[in-house]
Structures are given as structure tokens and as C-alpha cells.
Specification:
about 1250 residues; Arc Repressor Mutant, subunit A; Rossmann fold; 7-stranded mixed sheet; 43 helices; about 35% helix; about 15% strand; globular; hydrolase; DNA helicase activity; ATP-binding; Putative Viral (Superfamily 1) RNA helicase; nucleotide-binding
Amino acid sequence: MITGSRKLPLQHITIRVPWHDGGWNGRVCSAPSANTACLALTRIAAGKRADQDDHAGLMFEDLQSSVMPPCIDERVSFMANHDLILRKQHPYKISSPETHGHFGETTLRLEAFSAACIPFGWMLKSNVEGDEEAGLKGKAGALRLAYEHEREPELSFETGWVQDKTNQLIMLDTFFGALKPEESLCFFYAKKTPLSESSGRVIIGAARVKGVGNHTEYAYDGPGQLEGVLWERCVRHSLRPDGADGFLMPYYDVQAAAAASPEIDVEKCVAFAPDDQFESFSYGAEHLDHDGAIASLLSCAAAIRACAQVIEIDVSGVLAWIDREIARLWTTRGVHPGLGSALTAFGLEHGTLLAHEIVRAGSKDGEVFDAFSFIDAFATSPGSFPQAEVYGFGSSYRQKWMGLAKSRRQLLDLVARCSLSVEQATRAYQPSQRTFSQATSDAEILGNPYLLFERDEGAADPIKFATIDRGIFPPGAVREVAPLAPGIGMSDGIDRRRVRALVTYLLEGAVQTEGHTLLPRSWVVRRALEATLDPGCAVDEDVLDMAASYLAETLEAAKTSEGESALKLRRYGVAKAAISSAVRKRVEGKKHSLSYKWRLKVNAALPEMNEGPDAATEELARQEKTAALEQLVTGRFTALVGPAGSGKTTLLKVICDLPEIAAGQVLLLAPTGKARVRLEEATGRLGEGMTLAQFLQQRQRYDGASGRYFRNPDAPREKGYRSVIVDECSMLTEDQLAALIDAIEGVDRLILVGDPRQLPPIGAGRPFVDICRHLAPDQAVPIFPKVAPGYAELTVIGRQRGQDRGDVLLARQFSGEPLDAGADEVWDALKFGNLSHVRTVRWGLPSELEPALARELVRGLGLTDGADQKGFELSIGGSEWEGHVLFWPRRAGAKVGGAAASSHDWQILSPVRAGLSGVEAVNLVVQRRFRSKVRERAQSKGAKYPKPAGPQGVLWGDKVINLRNNGRRRTYPQQERPYVANGDIGIVVGGYRTANMKFRPKDLEVEFASQPGIKFTYYASEFSGEEGTPELELAYALTVHKTQGSQFGKSFLIVPRNCRPLSRELLYTAITRHREELVVLHEDELGTLRRYSDPSASEIARRMTDLFSDPGPVQVTTSSGPRFLDRHLVHRTSRGEFVQSKSELAIAEKLHAMGVPYVYEKPIVLGGTMRWPDFTIADDESGITYYWEHLGMLSDPQYVKRWEKKRAAYLAAGIRPIEEKSGGDVLVETRELPGAGLDMGEVERLVKLIRG
């Protein structure tokens, strides 16, 4: 090791590898173009070739260097059984020949079964040097290395990487010097895989480190001032195909099984890196401490057991290896894995470094090391460890240590037993630094160490349950050496403190990943038993009963509609009380006395009515708008519901323009920036709206660092608005709505606007759905208009979109609403291309998607051909000037124009991010096809705009999306309160080098559609580094979730086969994003879409919430496997079938009760068209088949028209009404009566006629 580096105690290493489809075996992928997961790595995304499939399956050693795929530099060959030779060029040789031109081609030998590791986090200057102004200490200072900033050369360009050779060796030697052959483990992981949509790191395999190669100095073509070394060092490992000393996860076998059986949930078989080890699984290669290694192995063991449930595999050998290593790691880990952070929290500037020295000096192989006993010894006898003085542990600190009160020493010991960060340890140990959800004393923490987890949820880096659990439950060897003090330690795995913390952890996970705000106790038990813990926590009903009173201190009891006990987090009990109370009191409260001729107000806001075929429909639309307007104005609370085009925003403008309401001020809110702009435009109040995050952050109820919304009764409330309107409320979580209600006061009317048929929010609950269900008129008794206290629903689509447009009819199939009897005509029309405003295109093979999409973009955007880059750039907001396309923001004072104004003219949608059909791959495909000329110029030295930025290579003129709420970006013109919201879409309009600029711009400037004329700066540094997470991504293709709240001219929807995220609500949301045309690019048969119209495909019904009523979980079997639904959100017969409405349910139950066998929605061909009668009843004795159609309420002229067409087809097929005794097949019709619903007496009469 070079002088000035430091020998650190033993560490393990994480090694990032790209996803590979053939076992990382030294060959090119068998289908390179189909592997899109590897594109998450910048070097691969930038260097993957268009002709990559020409080399599929070839050995890397047989390839010329000119066609070597970029993944070879990303350790893709770590399982190769032979050496490989790589020839490396310094990355700055070409771009900066004056400083690096003398660096020559350098040979790097990759040994068999090794990985060339680069610890990028240790070579990043900001990490190494820290930031003195921000109070952040770098690695060099924290470890007191001989790194010197002054040695770094002055270059003609900016770089964030360490450049001096000596500095490089100091950092690299220190990093690799902590790896000990045979004792250090290596964990291979991937940043992205086709196995999961999650952003978590996926562990690929684990093994033992066998050796570390020496550094390689660059070759030089001639003399030069600078010298350097290759950052790669080969780490040899013990992993072999036979799995004798390590293992690869059996992901390929799981993928194959899932392809044959789509009901397999692949994600359950994935070993994710532990939540509290994200930084350790970053930067290409990084240290992993013993605690992290134990947690990682436990994650692998749980995933391997899950794999064994779906594939035939012998896992005994792998599990035995994991068990042996965990046992060894516990001994090596010692008593205090968090010693460095604890000593820093204690007050020592170099606590981490001192901890390294203590472990190095005091630990012995094969023995559990008690660091506190060691410190006691040298605190009493300083001469036994003189190094302590060097690292700041002088006489004053010795005195402080020896004088610690018993409780303070116990707390410091507890903190050191948990592998916490310095910031977490400081919050835990120093009372003045605690930012817990409630005041917490030392005594309380010692009485229940899990409070460190339970009360830290508001932090940007909250302390994890598993971190505390490992500290409290080490194995017997550790407990024998240094047992926790009585009252702190726990005698068994079901201590009530642990049980409560585990249940809290499970409930938090259910909120974040599934949207549940409560879990039935039986679910809690099952999930507790499945939790990755050592020792396990054997929770059962008896244990929950035993701990009931203790659980009740922080959790709330709930129940299902069947009476089963359930549990929920306290904050959702508070949210339920706040939301339900506000809604109930406002709905039941005193109405406002405002009175207008409401119909005249509606007529004035709409074009003049004309006589014609649509006049009757238009009259219905105005009737319901009139009733809705009165409710909105006079009510204290109203949920305004309706699909796109039904006229919701028309009514909002009428309300905002009423003098009495305008005088009291109107607050306009929306979850996203684009939805805010649409609301402002619709109401004529540009610039007056806010996103919910903006509003709540100003009122201390939103934390941008953690993204958390919360109630804060102690903070000031907003009292300046008498009316509050919130749009796109289907996106609101219970946290957001509860925080909003807590933040406002003196409000006369609260109006929540949205479409509850869309996707539920990402997060807790589905409050808008629950509110609508609570307030809506009973479906069993049809009324028109659908207006009730607190509720107004618009059902008639306006003339502009058209009530009978094909896309509107298709969307209704996925709305979950009762459909008219003739609505099933949509499926054959879709199949044969006869559905207006909808176009369908089949792609049968993955390789067919790109050309199919390109053809549709050419057609839909009016391009000349697939190479028409100029036409494409004009379609996204470019302006033609002297034969070139330029991208400019809107000019100051202009009302129109600007590149971003066209950003919503068209949009590609996909349900997923990963895979060839996911947005990550599609974005790169579109950019490479239609922006390749700009990319070529951007990569040249004379370009006028920035280089490609980030992993995706974002270019000047690209369509992009902002990924995080941010109120601190630089803007031009300068804004007093600059704010860009998560989900805002715009165009990169800068930088662009103009005549008065000396240098080429480095930073990107974006004009967003939500804020025309304003350029937001995204610094080049945000896109640099191996683990940069830029807040900007390409947006040619977006997930359906990301487009919620937006409208586009044309939509291109990609629908892959066997896609788990597909749901009824996702398709409904996707199909309602466009105004002009929808193009569906489908991999499977079009008919398979129909299964997602079934109630069992509902995402909303999967959520368990109890805002107004208790949930009723019922397990059902679907094409994606078994799942639980809330029985109150679906209509399920006693035979287990799902039907569309309460009336159909009533008919089905009557048929069943009276012994008449039936088939629900059995297809029949009528007049050459496939139709689906509600019930088909075949009478074997008479040979007569009865087709029962329930017509619902025939008040809509278009409904009547469609039914008459279908009825005529029945008659033409010889199927006569039941009243006509023809001797042939029979048509049975039932209707609903306004205000009365279905006549069950008539149903019984008809059943008797059928039965005979």
C-alpha cells in the first residue's frame, strides 16, 4: 500500500454488474437487443451498438476491440472461466490532448472468475474532499489520509474525479486494502433487472473474495506532466457453476417458469439489497460492513426459499453455505458494528477512524470483540492504547467516558450495537438532536430500543427496523461476551416491544407498496412469519392478544366487515377521523343561501343548443350540469365526479366567476404541475393555482427532503380562502388529504374534483374513491341526474368528445360502472378496426415493437418516413429557421409559442419501465431514431449545446419530465418563488451558444408546459457520476402512472403480454389521456384486453381501507394468480362469479336460488358480431336457450340506440322475446325504473316462465 493510505478493518465488497441473459459467462447476450435492463448503466446506454445482435452469443475473446460491447467494462464477464485482455484508453485522451494526449493504450488482464472493480465513490472529489461550507467531511479527512487537494492538477476543463496519481493510489489502496482473501465476501448486484419494476438493487449472487490484483499504471506514448493508474483492480472470487463456495440466484429458471405460468409473482423470488444498505450497494463497488453482509445473506435466503416454491431446485447446499457464513460473520462483526458512528455521536471528531483502530488493535480472529471493554481499559490506562490520543480521545474524553451516567453509557452501548450512520446515531444519542415524531427521553429508548425505529419515520434517512433488530438480537456467542443490560435486552423473539415494532414495520410496508391503510390480523400473522428475521418472530393470534395493550399505545385497532380484528398505524386512524369528520359535518351542515337561475348559468357557459340528432343527449348533459352546479355552490362539501369531456371544468369556471365566490377568494390546488395549469386555464385564473406540495410546504405540512405529507395542528392554518377547489383527486393519498384539511380554516366550500375510475394514488388508501362511494346515490335505485348531498356526477360526454365516440365506449369498458346492454359491440369494432378514434397495431415478437412504433409515429405525426428527424423535432416544439430546427422558450409577453407548448401534442404510454416495451427502452429507441443527428453534433467539440447528459444522454431539444418537487432551481427570468413539480413535462431549450457567448454551455435549461417562458436550469453535475440520480428523464414515453392528470393530443399505448401491472384502472387511465386519437400497440390478441374489464382486475378493489366503512377481504383467483379484493367494491355472486352491477347480482342470485343453471357472459355471434349476453340459460329438456339481457335505465338516447341495434340482431337470428311463444330460442329483457330500480317481482315471474 502506498504511503499515506490506511489499512482499514476487514470489509466486504459489493460489485455492480449489468443484467445478462446467459450467466455472465464471458459471452455476448443471446439476445442483446432484448436486454434493456443493462441500459441503466451510463456507459452501456451510451455505447450499445445498433448491430449488437450480429454478435449474439459470441465469446468476448473472439471479438475485435472495435465491436466489443460496452458491458465488458461493467464486469459482465465475472463468471467467465478464462482470462480476458482489455485495452484501455484514458477517457480524457481524445477530449483533452493537451493534458492527456500522452497517455497510451494500456493492457488490463481480467482473470478467470474475477471482476474488475472500480470504487467510484472513493474517486469522486466531492466524496473524498467533502464540503467545508456545508459541514460535510470527506473520506480523506474522516480517515486522515495523506490525500492532498493541492496535488490535483489544474485542467482546462472541470472534472469531479480525482486526477493525481498519488491521490488515486491513496484512495484505491485504502479501499482495496480492507478486503481480506477468504474472509471478505463479495456480493454481485444489478441496478436494473427484468425481474422487478422496483428501484431496489437486486442481488445476483455471493461468494468469497479469493484475492485482489495490483494496480496497473497507464502506459505512456511520450512524456507528459500527468501520470495516472487504471482505477480497476481485479477481485477474484470463489463462485463457480457448481455452487461449491458461493451461489448465483436461480433467476433464469424463475423467469422461464413465469413465462409458462403468468400467475407466478417473480418479484417475490428476488433478493433485494437491504433497505438500510442502499449506499453500500452503489458506486460500482463499495464496502459492505458485517451487519450489511448478514442482512444481505438473509435476503438471499428468503428469496431462494421463495424460488423453491415455484421451480424444482435443491436449495439445501446454498442455504447451508449461507448459514455458515452468517455464523462466521456474527463472530467477526463483534458486539459493536456501529462503534464509529457512536463515538462520533459521543463527540469525537474522528470517531469512525478511532473505531477502525480500536477494532484493528483489539480484535482477535475467531473471537467476539467487545469494543467497550477495550475502551474501558485504555480510558483507565492510557498507555495501553496510545493511538487514542492521536485520534482525539484525550484526557478530557477519557474523563467524560469514565464519568458517563449509567443510563447514558447504556444508551451509547445500544447505539454502538446498531449499524447506524453518523446522523442516525447522533439523533439517537444526543437528546438535543432528536427529531423524532414525539419527545423521547433516554429512559424511554432504553425501555424500548425499537422506539429508535418507530419514532424516526419523519427523517430523510429514517432508522430501519432491521438495523435495530440485529442490534438487539445477536447470536448466542455475542450475548455471552456482552449481554445487553436487563430491561434493554430481550429474552425471546416474541417480546412485545419487538412484536409491536415488527407490526409497525409491516404496516408501513403495506402502505408504501400496496396502499393498504390497515391489515387484518391474519394477514399480519402471515407476513410476520414470512419476514426475513433471525431469530424469527413467531407471531400468532395468541401473541397479538398478549401484546394487545402494548400495541394499542402506538397502533389502532380496526376490523373487517366480517368482524375480524385488524390493525392500522396511528396516523391513519387520525387521518380517518379528520377526513370522515370533515366530510360528514360539511355534507350535513347548513347550506349556503346563494340562489341563481342555475340553468341560465349553464347555458351561458356553453355553446347555443341546436336541434339535431344530439339534441336529446345535450339536453340531458345540461340538466345534470344544472343540478351539479347548484350542489357545488350551495354545498359546504362536494365531490364533483366525471370522466374527461363531461364538463367538470366548465362548471368550475362558472363557480369561480360568481361574484360572491370570487370576492371570498378561491384556492386552486392539484397534485401535479400540469394538472395545476389545466385547472388554472379552465377557470381563467392563470398563475393563481398551486400544487398540493407547494401549498402544504408553505404551511409546514410537507417535507421536501423525505416527500412526506403530514398533519401539523401546531402550525398556522390558511384562512385567506373561502372556497377551495382540488382537481385530479383520484391521485390524493390519505396523508395528503388529511394534511390539506388540517391546513385550511374558514372555508365555506371544499370541492374535490376527479374521476374515481382512474388509478388509485401511489401511497396510502384511495380517499376520493371512498368519499364517492359514501356519498353517491345507491346504484340499485337509479336516478338522474346523479346528484346527492355532497355529491355531483356528470355522466354525459360533451359534444366535442362525443357520447358515442369509440374511444369513449372503450374506456367505459374499464370504468367499473354498469354498462348498457349494447355496449359490448365495442369489442368486435375494436378487433376489426372499426372503432372511431382508436387504432390498433399488433406486434407479435419483441423485435417487432420498434418498427411498429416507428411506423405509427410516422403516420400519426405526419412525418415523411422513419428518418424524418426534422419533422419529428417540429412535432415536439421545434421551430424551423434557415433549414434548421431550433428550440426556444416562449418570448416575454407572448401569449402563445415556445417549445413546451407542443410537449403535450402526443405521448407514448406504457404500463412498465423495464423491458423492450418499457419506457426506459422506448425513450432511447425514439431518441436514437429521431435525434441521432443532434446527438452526433452534441458529441463533437464544436457543438453549440451541451453534451449528452446522464445515463439516457439527454439532448438539447429532448422532451423531458421532472422527477422531484423542487423550489430552489435557478430560473431565467429569475422567479421570486421558483418551483417545478414532480411530473412536469417540458422541452430542453438550452443552453444554446449564441454569438455573445464565449464557451459552449454545460447545463441544461428546460421550459415546462406548466410555466411557459421560464427556463429552469439543471446543472451538468447533476448528471455526472456513477450513481447520479438526475431529476430529469426523457419523456417521449411515460408510464401511465406518470401521465395521470395530463391530456395529450394523441396517445400511443403499448400493451405487453402477461404484464402484471395491468389493471382495470390502468387501462381506463391510459385510454382517457388523449383528445384526438388513441393508438394501441398490443403484443397479445386484442381480445385478452377484455379480461381486464372484469372486477377481479381492479387495483382499487385490492386496497384495504376503512374511511367510511370496514373492508371485506375476499380471496379470488385471477389470470395473474390469487389475490384479495374488498368485497364491497365488487359484485360477486354466491357462486363466486363477478358481475357488473347490483341488478345483475340480484338476477344471478334469483336464478341460482330458484335452481335455474346459467352461464354469465357466454359469447354468441349475432349478425356476424360477437356479443356477450348477461345470462345464457340452456334448457336441455326443451332444447331452448334463453338469453337474458338486463338493460339498466334507458334514459340515454345513445344507450337506446345501441340496444335497438343489438335487439334487432337477436330477432334476425330467430331469437324472439319471451312474450312471443315461437318455439325457438328466447330473449329475456329486464329494465330498471327511475327512482325504483329493478322489479324483483318481475324477475321472479320471468324465472318461473323459464323454469316452466
